[in-house]
Amino acid sequence: MSEQQNTEYEKYYVPEQSKLPFIGSIGLLLTAFGAGHAVQGGSLSWVLYIGLAVLVYMLSTWWSSTIRESRDGLYSAQMSRSFRQGMIWFITSEVMFFAAFFGALFYVRVLVMEWLGGSSNNAATHDFLYPDWIPGWPMTTTPGELNGGYPTWEAMGAWGLPAINTAILLFSSFTLTIAHHALIEKNRQTLILFTAITALLGAIFLMLQVEEYIHAYQEMGLTLGSGIYGSTFFMLTGFHGLHVTVGTIFLIVMTLRCAKGHFTPKDHFAYEAGAWYWHFVDVVWVFLFIFVYIL
Amino acid sequence: MADHKPTGISRWLFTTNHKDIGTMYLVFSFIMFLIGGGMAMVIRAELFQPGLQFVEPNFFNQMTTLHGLIMVFGAVMPATVGLANWLIPMMIGAPDMALPRMNNWSFWILPAAFGLLLSSLFMEGGAPNFGWTFYAPLSTTYGPPSTDFFIFGVHLMGISSIMGAINVIVTVFNMRAPGMTLMKMPLFVWTWLITAFLLVMVMPVLAGAVTMMLTDRHFGTSFFDAAGGGDPVLFQHVFWFFGHPEVYIMILPAFGIASAIIPTFARKKLFGYSSMVYATASIAFLSFIVWAHHMFTVGMPVQGELFFMIATMLIAVPTGVKVFNWIATMWQGSITYETPMLYALAFVILFTIGGFSGVMLAMTPVDWQYHDTYFVVAHFHYVLFPGAIFGTMAAVYYWLPKWTGRMYDEKLAKVHFWLSIIFVNLTFFPMHFSGLAGMQRRVPDYAIMYSDFNMLSSIGAFGLGLMQLLFAWILIKACILKKGEKATDQVWEGAEGLEFTHMPSPAPYHTFDTPPKID
What we know:
heterodimer, A: 295 residues, mainly alpha, Four Helix Bundle (Hemerythrin (Met), subunit A), 2 domains, B: mainly alpha, Cytochrome C Oxidase, Chain A
């Protein structure tokens, strides 16, 4: 702290007025309004797509203007710290979003399942409501009647596609680190090549996950409606997949920016943010693989 | 940079100025406060007498639901965010918030979110009617169609809060003037920093809860359905994991405000500054491990009930530290009683009453009796109205002269204060008794034995509602009609802090383009 006090003061960049945040709010309003109609199958569902289009337009304009400002040298070291810290807290909030779903999974597996099976003081629950149901994880049928039937399904094993996907994601963290080192060592060929490889691995991961979902729906009878097992399985892996998609787009943009020579060994916040995000997605997957697939 | 101020509507729509954004937050929250208050008037009118008078039970439920949601997310939270926007950069010597454009986005999401929420009143099937806690299955299986718009509205509020909170954290960590070390920051900055941390941690969990609701409603999942292996109680766990820190999100900024105002008017330094910081941090930490005290009657294992009871009572320790420090600050001070000080004092006393009833509710066996009665309503209104809202009002009276350059009408403000004090107690104190006698919350009708207490509460509530119109008038007079004497730069004799010592009144549009030196 005391060292910083003596450094010369650099002007903090406070941007001029901007239309983008307001446009973004209109985009979010249309998205939310349209989504409300879409889930109900209403005739105004199309508003959702307009809202999303506005959001995509707004965010891409916003980010391209920050890239321009960064290229114009408007960002001081202090500004760069603001971005870094902002990204870290954003990832923290993402972690907590996943924590809600992991929490649901643990609560159900450790407590609810046993209670529905009659443990503790819940014998009556089991005997009167769900006498034929035997608790056990992975759950392959529901305790009670769901949507007018008793669905059954196969549980998703860990050692087929999911294990391959785990290897792909872990390997992608490795390639990304090589790229990051190359950036610091000014080795541009390696940087571009390995960032592109990382993005490609992300895309392969996504394709395999789609493959896995198709297999689950068509051959295993495992759907979102497969009781709490299907709910937690698809919501956790689905939201993770969504984050991989975002991360992959992030990495593709970073590849292009590397090719344009936007980054220097000292100043490459966007690249680091992308890398952090990717590692976060990777770590979430490790937890998923352990708690959703293996255990 | 000259003190250039853009004009016209675009100044507000496209601004990146923390003061403009702070003003918009405060105005928005006051409008929401009046709308939510109007709903409270409907509730109290219906409860004036036993029997059904004015509204259908279903509409009554919509009113209690929207009243809660609007007051929590639309009035109290944006008010403190507005104060944070106005004050934090000035208090730490920063030119603006760290991420000014995102700051404006955080604000402009709110009108969208609340427009969506309020529009649900006019939808087929009416607005959400399951209480502000939207327990499953009331909100999943039995929720009206407008529930989906409510869900997406909550998503928007969450996005807004998370972006706002990230902005505050980054501003505090990265934008302090040279020499403004963490332990020199005004306590308001500290309490807001911790509030922002809580927001980042729990708003995503709320987003998770409503997302599970959404998929349960429309995509066949069974998170909250025991037939599919889920559990409606799971909803309560996820909700209250958000919901309990949320109550500290609402009250911590008020703690910071009291810690700013009391030393000024007692003309003494705040007693026990560092213990205040540690107490706030302890409260925040404890707030993560007490959530199930809202669920004592749901049928938890007894170990759970015990743990959550003890953890909850622990919160009284750091809270007691704070109350002690406020009182010790006043001890042997030369106190004067301007309106901000009156509100701060009322805050300390009445918030403590709410704290005490909180300790009562924390005791599991006792809570089995109190749960979902008007005693709970009395408790949380004591911590929210004379707590969070009086805190905000104290802040508005205290900093308004700095913002506008003019004093408010002190006489009217004192009338506002004294009548508010009478009416707030008249409204909420009798609820303790009707609750202890067994009156259920969220029911439009009640047994005749509760009539007297309810009539008192309703009279108090109408008075309290009127008082807020007086508050509006005081603000209009000071801010728009610009009547009132000019404020000095220091505003209050004993005021300290960069906003009082380092800039004129009114504060210029841009402050601290070059940071001040702090020794």
